[in-house]
């Protein structure tokens, strides 16, 4: 962290009032089959927010789109908590916020909505603190991971592309990779939600050594398949560490993944579910997968063909037009 030497924390806080930033954060899919808590992919569907620092007595929060009428509109709002956490890490008192969110990332479906909210707060705070405190990319990942618990959604939300995230004694780290241009993600979103906490509670404390070896081989292969050899994606997305244990909590997801994989499509649970991610090798395979879902699914699924987002979260200052 770099802090401007001349600013006192009270001086910094008053310099921030009046600033407004625009933040855009992509959806993400974590795990990608074998890469449990490690691999993540940023997808071109976004939450966008405008965040201003004000001298009002309380926060003013508006939410449009996904979560409208459902999420809290006070300091317990996840974006506000994340801004507060980032200001605390910067050692600068947090101002009141005016926050207007336009959300399109589905909630509770395994598409990284909570990671996106956390990253939105971290990015909004860094934009409001511009010129006063600067965080390194590792610090941004660390701050976001402190709130999310694991780095596999927040890393691609912050940095875009395909990310490998790992945890060291000095905090989480990431490596960003550029996905092969043929890879054509398809996200299938069911109507019901799934709690990540419930999904994590279904995981066993330990797994057979042979299953660990199985996943080591598949996740190493998956990185090669995603950046170089999409024809290997079906084998590379096999997993024995998490999906089988969670299947009972999302039987429709499990059945549809089996049907897609039996037809040759690399389908996996997206994050903790219940959405499905199909990592098709090209757009025509993706269209085939959509047809299979339309013909065979027992329940309603929204099919979202999404590009890979290569940029990650962005924050830009909003400058008032001259009157
Ligand atoms: N790796 C996480 C899990 C992603 O599967 O539990 C969801 O937050």
Secondary structure layout:
Elements: E1 2-3, H1 9-16, E2 20-30, E3 39-54, E4 60-65, H2 78-90, E5 96-103, H3 113-128, E6 133-134, H4 137-148, H5 154-159, E7 162-168, E8 171-177, E9 184-190, H6 196-201, H7 209-227, H8 233-236, H9 243-246, H10 251-262, E10 267-269, E11 276-280, H11 283-296, E12 301-305, E13 314-317
Parallel strand pairs: 4-5
Antiparallel strand pairs: 1-6, 2-3, 2-13, 3-5, 3-7, 7-8, 9-11, 9-12, 10-11
The structure holds L-homoserine.
* Ligands, deduplicated: L-homoserine
The amount of beta strand, in percent, is 25-35%
Topology pattern, helix = H, strand = E: EHEEEHEHEHHEEEHHHHHEEHEE
CATH architecture descriptor name of the largest domain: 2-Layer Sandwich
Structural class label: alpha+beta
């Amino acid at each position: 962290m770099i802090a401007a030497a001349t600013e006192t924390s009270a001086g910094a806080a008053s310099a921030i009032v009046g600033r407004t930033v625009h933040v855009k954060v992509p959806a993400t899919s974590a795990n990608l089959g074998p890469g449990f808590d490690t691999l993540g992919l940023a997808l071109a569907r976004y939450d966008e927010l405008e965040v201003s620092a004000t001298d009002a007595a309380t926060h003013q929060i508006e939410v449009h789109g996904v979560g409208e009428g459902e999420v809290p509109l006070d300091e317990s709002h996840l974006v506000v908590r994340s801004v507060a956490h980032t200001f605390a890490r910067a050692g600068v008192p947090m101002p009141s916020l005016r926050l207007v969110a336009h959300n399109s990332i589905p909630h509770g479906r395994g598409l990284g909505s909570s990671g996106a909210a956390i990253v939105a707060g971290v990015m909004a705070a860094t934009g409001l603190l511009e010129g006063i405190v600067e965080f390194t990319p590792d610090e941004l990942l660390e701050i976001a991971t402190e709130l999310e618990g694991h780095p596999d959604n927040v890393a691609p939300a912050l940095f875009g592309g395909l990310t490998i995230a790992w945890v060291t004694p000095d905090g989480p780290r990431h490596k960003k990779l550029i996905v092969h241009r043929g890879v054509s993600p398809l996200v299938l979103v069911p109507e019901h939600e799934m709690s990540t906490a419930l999904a994590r509670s279904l995981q066993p404390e330990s797994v057979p050594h042979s299953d660990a070896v199985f996943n080591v081989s598949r996740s190493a292969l998956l990185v090669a398949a995603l950046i170089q050899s999409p024809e290997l994606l079906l084998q590379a997305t096999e997993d024995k560490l998490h999906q089988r244990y969670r299947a009972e909590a999302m039987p429709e997801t499990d059945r549809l993944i089996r049907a897609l994989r039996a037809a040759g499509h690399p389908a996996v649970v997206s994050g903790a579910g219940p959405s499905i991610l199909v990592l098709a090798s090209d757009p025509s395979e993706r269209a085939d997968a959509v047809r299979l879902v339309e013909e065979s699914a027992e329940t309603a699924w929204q099919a979202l063909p999404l590009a890979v987002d290569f940029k990650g979260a962005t924050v830009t200052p909003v400058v008032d037009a001259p009157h």
